[in-house]
Each structure stands twice: as C-alpha cells, then as structure tokens.
Design goal:
260 residues; BirA Bifunctional Protein, domain 2; SH3 type barrels; 2 domains; five-stranded antiparallel β-sheet; 6 helices; Biotin_CoA_COase_ligase; biotin
Length: 260
C-alpha cells in the first residue's frame, strides 16, 4: 500500500520550478479551489498552485461534497489568467484538464466525457473548474482530487477506485505524481491558451465514451439514450438516439451502459 506521508514540498517545488509562480501547501483546508478563488481576487498571479493533504469541503459537479483520509489523494488547484479570447473556448477547458491527468499517470486510464478519469471502468479522479472573472481579464481555477491509497471502505461512492486498489502490486510516489500532474497541466493548458488544434484530436484518442451506448442525464432531469458517436471541436458530445436523431450536448451526466 502506498504510504500516507506528507508531500515532500522541497522536492515538489524543485520539480516544477520555472513553470509555476507559486506552489502553496497546507496540511488541511476547506477547499483548494476556494483558496485560489480568494487568492485570485487578491491579485495572485497566473500559474499559482495550491496543494493540500486534506480537504474538508471538497466539491464535485453539482455541488457534491466529498472527503478522503489525510494524504490519501493528490489534491490540487491551479489559477489561470488566460487572454480574453479564450472565453470562446471555455467548453474545452475541462476536457483538456482531464487529458493532462492521463498524460501524467504511470498507468493506463481513459476519459469518460467530459473529464472523468476512469480505470477499470471506475472513477479515479474528479475535476472541478470555477470562474473567478469572465471579463476582459479572465481568471479561472481548475481543481482535482485523485484517489491514491483509498481502500474500498474509504471510497466516497461504489463506482470510485484508487490507484492502490486498481494496481495492488505497485506503490505510487505521491510527491512525484503531484509534480507530474502539475507539469502536464501546465503543458496542456498552455496549448489550450494558444488554441492548439491538436488538443481535441488527442482528447478523442483517449475518450472511452466514443462508440459507447450511453445514458445521459440532462439538465432538467431528462434522460437521453443512444450511441456517443463523437466529440465536436468545441468539446460537446454527439449522441445519436435510437430514432437516428443526433443530439449535441454541452452538459450532462454520462453512464456507459456496457459498464453497468
């Protein structure tokens, strides 16, 4: 089992030197996203990162609250201050964040649209983005929680998984893993800021939703059944229902029916 020692911050900061303006570390906090939203409002620079050992008020999509034992996850958030023109591409930002995490992982994983990191069909990592400002000087926070050493009894939901559960013969260096995720985020999000057209191609290559029979819970509690046939350039999911009608979705909770 991977140890639950605190992050080695001198080693982590050395590994990401030159890419991040600041990397803050706390033993415990309510939410690293909330910490960076507050820091952004006080003028913190782009590429400020916050990491913590324990988060007491972590949130996922739709405000779902989750917690995990101290030092059992990689928990971090980063602050972006991209150019104003990136506001037209905000729909792809969560997808690119998920792609970066796959880049950093030393194991095989896939993305369920839009950005759930799946290992063996179960959720390894959750991602939450928040906008601090969307005016001519945008400020955005992207946060994540990745399960490293959680046991079955500690998982927040039955369909979650941790690295230790998925790969019991391996041990994971949480400091190295955190550093690799930060570096991959910097690389992929810089591509996003620069409107690199290869990003969506790379995303499609690791999106396991494409080609799957899916059930999508839409806003308003409507349900759509069909086949996910692709991801558009703007990040929206294309689903063809049983009548052959094509739907292009910007939001929704996707279930892969073959995994039920």
């Amino acid at each position: 089992m991977t140890d639950r020692n605190p992050l080695d911050m001198p080693r982590l900061r050395a590994a990401v030197a030159g890419t991040y303006a600041h990397v803050t570390h706390t033993e415990s906090t309510g939410s690293t996203n909330a910490d960076l939203v507050s820091a952004a409002q006080q003028g913190a620079p782009a590429w400020t990162a916050a990491v913590t050992e324990y988060q007491s008020a972590g949130r996922g999509r739709h405000g779902r609250v989750w917690t995990a034992p101290k030092s059992s996850q990689v928990i971090l958030s980063i602050l972006l201050r991209p150019p104003a023109e990136t506001r037209q591409r905000l729909g792809t930002l969560p997808l690119v964040t998920g792609l970066a995490i796959l880049d950093a992982l030393p194991i095989d994983a896939r993305l369920k649209w839009p950005n759930d990191v799946l290992v063996q069909g179960r959720k390894l990592c959750g991602i939450l983005g928040e906008a601090v400002a969307l005016d001519e000087h945008p400020a955005l926070v992207m946060g994540l929680g990745l399960n490293v050493s959680l046991t079955e009894a500690e998982l927040p939901v039955p369909h979650a998984i941790s690295l230790d559960l998925a790969f019991p013969g391996m041990e994971f260096d949480r400091t190295e893993l955190t550093a690799q995720i930060l570096l991959a985020l910097h690389r992929r999000l810089t591509q996003w800021i620069n409107d690199d057209p290869t990003l969506i191609r790379d995303y499609r290559s690791v999106c396991s939703s494409i080609g799957q029979q899916v059930k999508v819970l839409l806003p308003g509690d409507e349900t759509l059944l069909g086949e996910a046939v692709g991801v558009a350039d703007d990040g929206r999911l294309r689903v063809v229902d049983k009548r052959g009608v094509s739907h292009v979705l910007a939001a929704g909770d996707v279930t892969h029916l073959r995994l039920q």
